[in-house]
Write a structure and sequence with these properties.
With about 200 residues, this protein is α/β, with parallel strands linked by helices. The chain has one domain: 3-Layer(aba) Sandwich (Rossmann fold), CATH 3.40.50. It contains 7 helices and 6 strands, in the order ααβαββαβαβαβα. A 6-stranded mixed β-sheet has the order 3-2-1-4-5-6, sandwiched between helices.
């Protein structure tokens, strides 16, 4: 019985070995697991902490701009969060701002839904960044991020970018002191092009 001849060239042997090895490692495998565990539908996780009472573009409060922007959003389940999360039926039910920013609890609530895509809208100052990123790792599907804080808050921007990376998603930003509900709504629709409840 004859055996296949081994390549005489060691480099060729390495190439053959690499070609037969599994291609997925690291981030590719992690991203595949995120999407394999996802169900269907979309979730919007909206920050309603105390900072959302700050004034924004047009003399409105941030929460008012967010309510208007979400009114025209594609179909998605909506979780409002401050010190604790609560699922609400529509943007009109976004509660008045107050409390802390327990983003990790909101992401854990979204995780129970197993969404295909999650959009996190926040000014990027969670109570605990480490807990928020750990919760993001457990969440299925992609996590897109819409930062709505000041352009000069580099620490918050860095955190929100890290959250998008952890969720294999996209990052967008609008300083609500300079952007109204129309522009914010366009960005939301761009990040969530469709979906179902």
């Amino acid at each position: 019985m004859s055996r296949p001849l081994a390549p005489a060239n060691p480099l060729q042997a390495l190439i053959q070995q690499a070609a037969s090895a599994p291609a997925e490692t690291g981030n590719t495998a992690r991203y595949r697991r995120r999407f394999a565990s996802a169900g269907t539908g979309q979730v919007i996780v909206a920050d309603v902490s105390g900072s959302m009472a700050d004034l924004a573009w047009g003399g409105k409060r941030k929460i008012e701009v967010l309510r208007e922007a979400l009114a025209g959003a594609p179909p998605a389940r909506l979780i409002a969060f401050s010190s604790s999360p609560s699922e609400i039926a529509s943007s009109a039910e976004l509660p008045e701002p107050g409390g802390g920013t327990a983003m990790h609890r909101a992401l854990d609530a979204a995780s129970a839904i197993r969404p295909e895509r999650t959009l996190v809208i926040s000014d990027g100052q969670p109570d605990d960044e480490g807990l928020a990123l750990a919760s993001a790792e457990r969440l299925s599907g992609a996590i897109d991020v819409l930062y709505i804080g000041p352009d000069g808050d580099y620490a918050a921007i860095a955190f929100m970018r890290a959250l998008a990376r952890a969720g294999a998603g996209r990052y967008a930003s609008h300083d609500l002191r300079r952007a109204g509900a129309m522009l914010l709504g366009q960005t939301i629709r761009g990040l969530l092009p469709g979906g179902s409840r």
